[in-house]
Specification:
By secondary structure, this protein is mostly helical. The protein has 8 helices and 2 strands. It has helices at residues 12-19, 28-32, 37-45, 49-57, 62-69, 73-78, 87-96, 99-129, and strands at 9-10, 35-36. It has a two-stranded antiparallel sheet. The longest helix has 31 residues, at 99-129. The protein is flat and about 50 Å long. It starts with 8 loop residues before the first strand and ends in a 9-residue tail after the last helix.
Amino acid sequence: MTSHQSTQTMKPATAAKKLGVYLEATPAEFQEGVVSRTELNALQSDPPEWLVELRRNGPHPRPVVAAKLGISISGLARGGITDPLTTEQIEALKQEGPEWLERERATQAEVRKEATRIKEKNKEKDAESGDQPGRPRS
């Protein structure tokens, strides 16, 4: 028996998500085709000008907007941001510093602090029980 390797492809929406770009802002040929794993790797390692430009100036998808603002995607929705934003719009929002953004940043900081506390607690518990992190318990 010989193994037959097929080319793994993905929808443009999946590829755009992996590239961190807003699908509707990509070129038509990208939106209309399928992307192979090899093509995705090539786009990541040697991005064409359109990809460099999109990553630099946007419009950015919500996960990227949230990350650039230092808040969660849910925080974006609570703040009334539902559309993609450009880098310029994100910077303007940071400069304005609206109350909802400051509140969401504080919430996100608390979430991170709690996640770190839980991680440390679990690490201590594993050390006390002699378990090795990342190893399944028997």
